[in-house]
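Sat 14:20. Reprocessing the chain from the morning session after the first attempt stalled halfway. Input below, unchanged.
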Amino acid sequence: MKNRSKILMVILPVLACLALSPQARATCLDGCSGFGTFQGDDALISNTTGFVNTAFGWRSLFTNTDGSFNTGVGGGALAVNDGSSNTAVGAAALLLNTTGFNNTAVGTDAMVFNDTGSSNVAVGDFASFDNTTGFSNVAIGSGAMTFANGFLTQPWASQQEII
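Finished this time. Tokens:
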């Protein structure tokens, strides 16, 4: 009996801590909304009039209200997006994109700081990391097109102007 009470005295506080932890209380939501699909904690939770959006992962497309035709796969992918026709695959890919459109980012933190830039492609972790307003850029490779004092430091990148 003494051993049993000791075990309970050890196990009960541990169980109480686990029950109160954020992971234990988090609710993984999944469903359909406006011809779109979402799954993950707070994924596509703010959507009002946007349609044909797909969000998979924690807070993927979190603040999107009226952006449409977006795909966010990964924790925080397109988290503050309200633009349209963007594709982000990877944790924090296109994380801070607000109104940029027609962007494709594949890799952890790819185009993480993009805000209003459009028609960009970034493939690789941290590819086009610092881009905020650029248009029609292509960055391929880890850290490609990361800006350092106005100079490109990249394995491979291309900057183009829209004519």
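Confidence is low (pLDDT under 50) at residues 148-153.
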